[in-house]
Amino acid sequence: MTPGGDARGPLTDPAGVAALLRYERARGFAGVAPDATPGFSGNKADGVRSQDEDADLIRSAQERLHAHALRPDGHRRALILVLQGRDASGKGGIIRHLSGAVGPHGLQTWAFGVPTQEEAAHHFLWRIQRRVPAWGRIAAFDRSHYEDILAVRMHGLAPRVVWEGRYDTIVDFENGLTAGGVDVVKVMLTVSQEEQAGRLRERITRPEKAWKHAASDLADRRRWHEYTQAFEDVLVRTDADAAPWYVVPSDRKWYARWAVGRILLHHLEAMRLEWPAADFDPATALAGLDATTALIAEG
């Protein structure tokens, strides 16, 4: 049986998974169960196998995207995948998985932490604008311009009057990107308190993970419910059909990686990019190949 019962069926095809995970204001961020696996009924082994199958589809879709970008008559398109969520929700693992699927030439990855001195001297979207991908490429953002609302709000880095206006500024910015041919796909990862505690414990106790630990992780964890509201406000005020938000349960890392891959595949397939037609005569090209082969053989 195909992973998930029927990985190409009416519920678990890429468009179906995207529909299941699309943010719904009535349900809200807190209404999504972090341990759920919407659209997938298999186990972890099935999920990993399905990820591998989807990797080939994602790679092919990105290559078509790239092929069009190289043609004068091609469709100039690119895509930004925004990953947000609580600490230890799995953003880095998802990006590592996608890097293996797409390859280093097709995927550009950027992590946005505390702004550098140079970045802080500019408009808050300056550092994001610099990382908009070239035509034919996909950019994956580990955190993003939304930190200029979330982190600033939660850490009191600026008064409300400053970050309050950024919701509308971001919507305008994303609308401009999509109108210009850059799709913006946004994923908010949700993890349970129990699962987050386990992952943070690993960061503290395992030497190979200790570099990830920061005292701020624990301080932020104590404000769990405040962060829930902050995430909800971002979703409510910046969700749009042109740049949609998806809420992905991430207690099961394998599921989150599968789901984000399906969402990405859905948006790539929605571009409806076929392989560009050849701009040469195949018969003439084959004749030329045969002629050069004969010359090489003759020495």
From TrEMBL:
Signal peptide per UniProt: none
Region feature Disordered, mapped onto this chain: 32-51
InterPro entries assigned to the protein according to its UniProt record, in alphabetical order: P-loop_NTPase, PPK2-rel_1, PPK2-related
Keywords, sorted A to Z: Transferase
Domain Polyphosphate kinase-2-related: 52-272
Any GO MF annotation of the entry: phosphotransferase activity, phosphate group as acceptor
Matches recorded under SUPFAM superfamilies: P-loop containing nucleoside triphosphate hydrolases (SSF52540)
Coiled coil: none
GO terms for biological process, alphabetical: polyphosphate metabolic process
Keyword Translocase in annotation: no
E.C. designation(s): 2.-.-.-
Entries under Gene3D superfamilies matching the protein: P-loop containing nucleotide triphosphate hydrolases (3.40.50.300)
Source domain of life: Bacteria
Enzyme class: transferase
Record-linked PANTHER family: POLYPHOSPHATE:AMP PHOSPHOTRANSFERASE, POLYPHOSPHATE:AMP PHOSPHOTRANSFERASE-RELATED
UniProt xrefs under NCBIfam families: PPK2_rel_1 (TIGR03709)
UniProt name for this protein: UDP-galactose-lipid carrier transferase
Annotated organism of origin: Brevibacterium yomogidense
